[in-house]
Structure formats: structure tokens, C-alpha cells
Design brief:
single chain, 69 residues, alpha+beta, two-stranded antiparallel sheet, 1 helix, 4 strands
């Protein structure tokens, strides 16, 4: 479970091929995270007024495209 109180980033745009991006919402709220930093988010789906359980997702911030690691 998330530590402390969560922050609502905002409503997602309509999904494209089943996916919705959060990068713009995240960056507007917290700024662009440094390359190599691990970012954690918690999501909860809301459909027709019903919510599902919280789900944790994390990822390492990648470097610019075209730069090998």
C-alpha cells in the first residue's frame, strides 16, 4: 500500500489501444524525474462509479532514445 497520503494526478485521456499515458500529468505535478530514478505510482480504475483495488507500478526512468545503456 502507498505510504502516507496519495496524490491524484488527474483524469487520464482516453486509452489508445488499451493504454493511457500518465507522463504529462506526472511531470506537471512533480517535474521530470532524473534518468535512472525509480518511479512508483499507484492506480485505481474507476468504471461506472465502481473502483477496483489499488495496483502498484514502478519503472526506471530511461535515458533519451538512441543512447545505449
Amino acid at each position: 500500500m502507498p505510504r502516507g497520503h496519495g496524490v491524484i494526478l488527474g483524469r487520464l485521456d482516453d486509452a489508445l489501444e488499451g493504454w493511457s499515458g500518465i507522463t504529462k500529468l506526472y511531470n506537471e505535478r512533480f517535474g521530470v524525474p532524473p534518468v535512472g530514478e525509480k518511479v512508483f505510482i499507484w492506480t485505481r480504475q474507476l468504471v461506472n462509479g465502481r473502483t477496483d483495488a489499488l495496483k502498484e507500478t514502478s519503472a526506471i526512468v530511461p535515458g533519451p532514445e538512441g543512447q545505449g545503456s
